[in-house]
Design brief:
Length: 153
């Protein structure tokens, strides 16, 4: 039993250290718009230190939005990239919020990094933020002149 726990603990530590290395960087921008209006958040992946993104391997961004957030697509793939090169890739995430306030979208980016002689798959979890402002209040209607006039018989 102890050996199994030690193995699981070692795997968790190794996974965390693997994701925390300096061979890639993930940047994100949050989405902001009025309630009901379309907003865009983005996720950019950049390979570093001689690594590049494998152009033949799947590259995905899976999204799990909070209640009140609607995303255009729950899973974005290579064909959905807004920008792509040998070392960078960017997904733009279209979203709409149904109510004012801040919400989150849990996401997982999956891609393959390669060097000259080796490749390795990467899965990285991240959280995107989205915020919707309340729509502007409708101007109050003025009382019409007809209601102020006395009725003549």
């Amino acid at each position: 039993m102890r050996t199994a726990l030690a193995t699981v603990a070692l795997f968790l530590v190794a996974t965390h250290a693997f994701a925390a290395d300096d061979t890639f960087e993930i940047k994100k921008t949050d989405g902001m718009a009025a309630v009901g209006a379309k907003a865009t958040a983005s996720v950019s992946i950049t390979a570093k230190k001689g690594w590049h993104l494998n152009q033949e391997a799947p590259l995905t961004l899976k999204l799990a939005p909070a209640p009140g957030v609607v995303v255009d697509k729950a899973k974005l793939e290579r064909a959905d990239l807004a920008a792509s090169s040998e070392t960078t890739a960017r997904f733009d995430v279209g979203l709409t919020l149904a109510e004012p306030g801040k919400k989150v979208i849990e996401a997982e980016a999956a891609f393959v990094l390669c060097q000259k002689d080796s490749c390795r798959p990467v899965k990285e979890k991240l959280t995107l933020a989205a915020e919707a402002a309340a729509p502007p209040a409708a101007p109050a209607k003025k009382a019409s002149g007809a209601s102020k006039m006395k009725r003549k018989s």
